Amino acid sequence: MAGKSVCTCCPDAEETKAVPLTTADLATTLAPAEQLWSSSRDRAVRLRMEGSGPGSETPATVHQMFLETVERFGDHPALVSKKDGQTVTLTWRQYYEQCCAAAKSFLKLGLERFHGVGILGFNSAEWFISDIGCILAGGLAAGIYTTNSPEACHYVAANCEANVLVVEDQKQLGKILKVKDQLPHLKAIVQYKGELQQKAPFLYTWDEFMKAGEDVPNEQLEAVIGSLRANECCTLIYTSGTTGNPKGVMLSHDNITWTARTVSKIINPNCGEEVLVSYLPLSHVAAQMIDVWCCMSLAGTTHFAQPDALKGSLANTLRETRPTGFLGVPRVWEKMQERMKAVGAKASPLRRRVADWAKSIGLEYGYSVMNGENVVPWGFMLSNSLVFKKVRAALGLDRCKLCCTGAAPITKETLEYFMSLNIPVKELYGMSESSGPHTISINEYRIGSCGKVIPGCKTKLENPDTDGNGEICFWGRHVFMGYLNMPDKTAESLDESGWLHSGDLGKHDEDDFLYITGRIKELIITAGGENIPPVPIEDAVKSEVPIISNAMLIGDKLKFLSMLLTLKCVMDDDGDPTDDLSPEALDFCRQHGVRATKVSEIIANKEPAIYKAIQEGVERVNATSTSNAQKVQKWVILDRDFTVGGGELGPTLKLRRPIVVKMYQERIDEMYAAAPERQ
């Protein structure tokens, strides 16, 4: 840099309006690399560069992408938080400066190159600043799920050789203190919310941490930032493994910046317009890619939800912030649907008739738009003003141009429910190993499909069957570097040509939309050798019997299929299931002449009307089966619903099948102890 020596990341006080280093000054350089993959923290990889098109874009580091946004939108709001009832906003320039200050503090606390900074807490400005500050200081940012046990936290911190851990509060700090003595690389712990309840030389409050690096020379941080290379690792995403220990997915700067920029251009070609709500776990790739990186590329504004978002407060945050885009995992959309149905059930008969009429028109219009016909049916404008606009406003989605879902399968019933309200929910598909998205539905979509491959990437279906179902394989700049310290696992996922094998089964339609048809590891192979994907059968049973919350198909290596069922119930403030039936479940009971109000009453009495209704629903699903092997012969209702806290669901509310089988092995054995009744 010519001229006056000013820190690229912390401008002098009198120059707070200027970011002295321009992107033009930053020549993009790559570290030497021969292979497309690596399982070593400090080994670069060869990028999957294309000769033209989106795959040929110039590689960039996280710092370069950040700087571009600050140069163009420095005074635009970046992060909006609620602190003690007050709204606190950071502009893009302030956010950048705080990330650089955090980077200096990490260096001061002894963060070594390619060592981890583990972040354990709910979404917040401090989470974002810790993550990016770590990357600018040459570390590896690693999110840790807040639901993790002390042992699971230890695994991640040890695996990434974390020098610093950033925790939200005393509760999360307690987990780390239990395992601190088993973490030889750990030098400091930072708590970003509340006062420390104990003093120790290695413990810092957020304010103490942010001041710790004030005496680190600007040149020292500049040198580190200048040494960052786009094809080196900067982030670790730990898979929420349903079996065994999680794997540390190594993402390079280029994985993050290329994916964020490519997706952002499709979301909105204009920067500075998007408003998002951050509430899904940032240790999961979907939330991190959208909330942190796409928002950075788009110069958007991120509002932080309250920690109890998934227990009910999310609705208030959405109404307050009115986001322009919203990503919800299937369970979030299902819960919204359940609440809206419960409210609708209490409406007057006239209101219900009007709503049903409007929804039938909304569904007709939704399919017309989806199919590219854009025919506006008679009555749509009236339905829009009487019903749709009011529903969108009540949900806080009146400004929302893009509603998405991903991370787990969603039912057609839920998608059609929202489409009938003129809220098309579009599916995304990808994995941690593809930096998040691989296929997206934005401008073009089909119900039941997770969209088309993102520009610059390729899909290959390996070993397709007669119906065209094959293992989905990915190629592109979004494909990860490898699993940290796991060369064998890396070789299982990436073949010799560098294609990523997803483990998912899928097929394309004539318009190249991708449909997920199962997961190889989830396939139930019966004793008779028939391969059965469980999700379609589970979804069908839930759709036929609205009192059912979760359904899990059993039958691997067994003579017939059976099913574990749970009933819809009220969740307490901690997200744990109570014994009280949910409003929708109560409504189902009333329709069948049953007065029960508790799950335990239905199970204890084997409530005949409810058991008969479930059996009839199962029989209706069985009637659509293509073979006897696909028919559910037995089922059992479990005492409590599945939850994250209970262990049955992962952090993104995905069913952890092997764990559920272990937990309920006795109940499963009972179903198979006697021969099934003939259906």
TrEMBL record:
Domain of life according to the entry: Eukaryota
Task: Provide the GO MF annotations for this entry.
Answer: long-chain fatty acid-CoA ligase activity
**Record-listed E.C. numbers:** 6.2.1.3
Q: Where is the AMP-dependent synthetase/ligase domain?
A: 68-484
Q: Which PANTHER family match?
A: LONG-CHAIN-FATTY-ACID--COA LIGASE (PTHR43272), LONG-CHAIN-FATTY-ACID--COA LIGASE ACSBG2 (PTHR43272:SF80)
What is the uppermost EC class here? ligase
- Could you identify this protein by its name? long-chain-fatty-acid--CoA ligase
Keywords linked to the UniProt accession: Fatty acid metabolism, Ligase, Lipid metabolism
The terms describing its cellular component in GO are: endoplasmic reticulum; membrane
